[in-house]
Request: fold
Amino acid sequence: MPVFGKLKQVFTSQSSQAESVTRHDVLKFMDVPVTDADCRFCPDPCDQDHDDVPKMNIDTESDLLGSVKPFRRQVVVSTGKSDWHQEVTEADGTLAAFLCSANKRRHTRSDSTGKASSSPNDDEPLPSGLFTQDTSDRLSILNGSHHSLSLQHDSASTLETVIILPDYKVITDVPRSLEGAETLWKSALDPAYGRSGAPGRSDTLQVMDSTLLVLNLALFAQKARQALRNHCPGPREECVSPPVRPARLPDIHQAFTQYLEREGWEVHTDLEDMSSEPTLELLLSTGNANSADPETVYQSQLTALPAQRRALILRNSHVGGHKFAGNVIIYTPAGASVWYGRVTSHHVESIVKNTVIGGCVLPPILRGGLNLARPGCRTLYDW
Reply:
């Protein structure tokens, strides 16, 4: 039996000991930078001032790895909010809804989410939940808590600011319309183009100026509201759920800020004014425009980001897997995306030290991720 076959046989064992040991081995075999460090540094039960997760219907038994649906790109639309519709693409009049329509109209290639991902260095299939951008052309559309940068220059602006991942790029001044969504799709989201987008774009593309992006799914409020609706004794139209805000619940967001700042990182919870930052077009024009390769120029900007030790932490809308709450997604400039599940404030210190700073994956809480198999790389920051 091939080495990977043996690992996979033990990996699928129901033994908890086999799971904790062989998950690390399988991921390491597939060139995923991993660590065998503990997922929490505090004792269990905890004797520190960490908030406990409220009693909710969270799945603590199912295997986390494999619970992420493959995608090629993820779009996070500015809203300045932290609470949204369950399906943001169904909220009429929003850029998320317009972008969903544009994606369906423009995307003519068949979605290949059923195709298994292969390791970048051979033909061995990656474990379920791990995938590359070649696995699928699916576009994941989310709302984010960041404000539109257009508001800094016009308080009445309806133009949005969009973060595109794992490209690590920011598009500003996107009209909240079907035409605006189609222009965005053609210039920056079309699977036919790389991170630098379509040639001759008319929009403003800039590299996100953070060492990493942490997305913290604001699902607790949604689940609490759903529970209130399900227990309403009268007709649904008579049942008005009181507002439920994430601030009332354990704040993983705050825990990340605390531990990152303790490690000397600069933490932001919103995009900063990027009007003084160079656009990709300006960067291309500073040298020999005829010989400059947009992808090379773009990557040169990304490789300089890890030294800045700046983190952008946002809340985002529903992406699936609420039964594995709390969910955290971490992106690095090198294009890696780590999805963790069942995260509580007890885990944040270890995530900061091992994944954010160390660039390694913690296997026991891994749901999956994009571009995690990195042959020849010691960390998720390496190219």
Notes: Confidence is low (pLDDT under 50) at residues 10-21, 109-114, 218-250.
